[in-house]
Amino acid sequence: MTLHRKMARNLMITAIITVSGALYAAEPVQPIEPVKQVNLALAELGKKLYFDPRLSKSGFISCNSCHNLSMGGTDNLKTSIGHNWQQGPINAPTVLNSSMNVAQFWDGRAPDLKAQAGGPIANPGEMAFTHKLAVSVLESIPGYITDFKLVFGDDGIDIDKVTDAIAEFEKTLVTPNSPFDRWLLGDQQAINDQQLTGYQLFKNSGCAACHNGPAMGGTSFQKMGVVAPYHAKSPAQGLVAVTGKDADRFKFKVPTLRNVNMTYPYFHDGEAETLTEAVDVMGRLQLGKKFSEKENAQIVAFLNTLTGDQPSFQLPVLPPSSDNTPQPKPFD
Predict the structure, then answer these.
(1) In angstroms, what CA-CA distances link 200 with 12, 31, 88, 203?
(2) What is the structure's pLDDT at 19?
(3) In contact, 238 and 252? CB cutoff 8 Å
(4) How far apart are CA 222 and CA 254, in angstroms?
């Protein structure tokens, strides 16, 4: 290890604090912790529902369609494709680590995962169903009747139980053990010199003022275009749609930077196709700073250390439909 590297690391690891029994450097970012409390039976039911396209009018779109767990919890499209190939108005945020968000959706209109889970089902531009019709489909499937009774202890299926289950499954979708987390926990070899320099630049430039905490975002709403206006191609106007306050126009929930090298394209309109472009735009419009090509590459190198262990599980086998199950209508 070079003298420069030793000095840099010694400066970075100056204070050690204890949280939940884990030691890590006193930084604006904390390691993601594994899930500690989960209702396993409820989460297993939620996993089935998350992957089941029969909750959509077409019988083709599931939660996983737009929040693909093989692709960083998103779909890697500027805007998602809804029922009948409708173009969505906004980029699909990742579902990974979404339990750490202060609210759900870019404009925060859902206070929690449970409230969010019911939204796409009834959205005519997404899954294009209704809660009543979705429940009627589940009630027609004997396997689901049994599953719900075993999990909830009583007869009957309703949308409240459906969203409870999906939310419980989504709580398990955390991504600990990234290289940067390992560095925070004391492994000085987990990131290299370029990545460490990128983190220093990330902090010193002001990025960490919004992208902080375990999820590195998701805990506040900020205006898109602080120093200079952002000319969005999306009609979405952010938090104002929820609060009605003009001061909240173009304020969006700060996205998590966890697994960010997997969740392209970036911003609420998906217009930044690469991390290099996203860093450049954020520097100029949010911080009033033009990063050099070298500085940009250093920050991107740091951002690449934020990818943790991806959720890994056996895909659910969905219970088969019965003769009474309503037929999907993919072309209506």
Answers:
(1) 9, 17, 37, 5
(2) 43
(3) yes
(4) 6
Positions annotated as catalytic residues are 126
Q: Has this prediction a pTM greater than 0.90? A: yes
Tokens of 247: 């001061």
Is 66 inside any structural domain?
Answer: yes
Q: Is residue 197 part of a domain?
A: yes
Q: Does residue 6 carry a pLDDT above 60?
A: no
Residue 80 DSSP one-character state: -
The first and second tokens of residue 269, run together, are 């309109």
Q: Coil, helix or strand for 323?
A: coil
For tokens 């029922």, name the residue.
Answer: 83
Q: What is the CATH number of the domain that holds 108?
A: 1.10.760.10
d(CA 56, CA 331): 12
Cα 75 to Cα 63: distance, rounded to the nearest angstrom: 11
C-alpha–C-alpha distance, residues 125 and 80, integer Å: 10
134 CB-contact burial (10 Å; exposed 0-12 / middle 13-18 / buried 19+): buried
| Domain count of the fold of the chain | 2
Cβ 295 vs Cβ 287: under 8 Å: no
pLDDT at residue 199 above 50? yes
**Pair 156, 270 in one domain:** no
CA distances from 158 to 133, 268, 291, 300 (A): 11, 32, 52, 45
- 307-258-226-103 Cα dihedral, nearest 10 degrees: 160
Radius of gyration over every alpha carbon of the chain, rounded to an integer in angstroms: 21
The predicted pLDDT at position 24 comes to 55
Task: Quote the domain boundaries for residue 101.
Answer: 40-171
Residue 123 lies in a domain: yes
The number of angstroms, rounded, from the C-alpha of 44 to the middle of its chain's C-alpha atoms is: 20
Q: Which residue has tokens 């895909």?
A: 315
